[in-house]
Amino acid sequence: MNNNDIFKKLRVALQLRDDQIEEILMLVDFRMSKGEIGNFFRNADHPKFVDCGDQVLRNFLNGLVIYLRGTKENPTNAMDVIKKNQAEVKKNIAAKAKPETKPKVEVKSKPANKPKPKSKTPKVQVVEKFQYKSGKNKK
Predict the structure, then answer these.
(1) What's the pLDDT at 69?
(2) Those residues with Cβ within 8 angstroms of residue 60's Cβ, 6 or more apart along the chain or in another chain
(3) Which of 28, 81, 85, 133 satisfies CB 3.0 to 4.6 Å to 63 for a cystine?
(4) Cα angle vertex 17, ends 11, 23, to 5°?
(5) C-beta separation of 56 from 3 below 8 A
(6) What is d(CA 138, CA 90) in angstroms, rounded to the nearest whole number?
(7) Which of the 8 DSSP states describes residue 70?
(8) CB-CB neighbours of 133 under 10 Å
(9) Residue 79: its pLDDT value, please?
(10) pTM for the full model?
């Protein structure tokens, strides 16, 4: 198991986004951009994949302690911070799901193939009766 795997597992377990990881690294005065952080989470065969060094992981872990526990002057409860992150994730998921839903259109079902009642209207002749005269006298 390498540093990238540890970093990925911590990110998933604590439900951290790239901007939160950037804030955590800033707590220990270690600056990294979101793009550089995203390169650690790529597949190993991706062209922009970067190995996570010991220094990056060490600074992340030190910043994570401060992020979760707080400082001596301002201590916080780690579970409160984790629950706050979980609530944000659920809120973001719910916000993404709402615009995509479309109101359902009720489809009226067609009646079964029932024979139509026959109307009793007299049949109208369109063409008149015509007698053919071929010149032969019929008796």
Answers:
(1) 86
(2) 7, 10, 21, 24, 25, 30
(3) 28
(4) 100
(5) yes
(6) 99
(7) B
(8) 8
(9) 83
(10) 0.61
